Amino acid sequence: MAKTTKKMSTKAAAKAVAKKADGKKKRSRTGKSSKPNFNTYIYRVLKETHPEIGITKRSMGIMNDFVNDMMDRLASEAKTDLSITGKKKTLSEWHFKTAAALVLPGELKKHGWSEGSKAVYNFNKNRKKSETR
Predict the structure, then answer these.
(1) Which of 24, 25, 33, 112 could form a disulfide with 100 if both were Cys (CB 3.0 to 4.6 A apart)?
(2) How many secondary structure helices (H) and strands (E) does the chain include?
């Protein structure tokens, strides 16, 4: 009885050797990342303000890291305010306003306050409209 053997391509052989050496399967990169991605929103704002300007992948990564860092700082400061103020478990507009005042410097603080107040006002206005329907 003769054994039939299949010839492996060089790529398949290399993969088999690498798999045996590691002893583990390689993870696919399609899983969710641990931090949020703001690339789409950064690009939309850029095109709204300066339609003729583009942004490189590296610059987008830096901007995304910056936004993530700011969000973490604001959220942790708001959480600290929440723990100081009492038994409530829900962050309110006041907590984020206070966090923005503590984290952001000078002129950015003023813009943060006004944009945050405008966003909360528009949210509440739209929520009331949808409740009356």
Answers:
(1) 112
(2) 5, 0
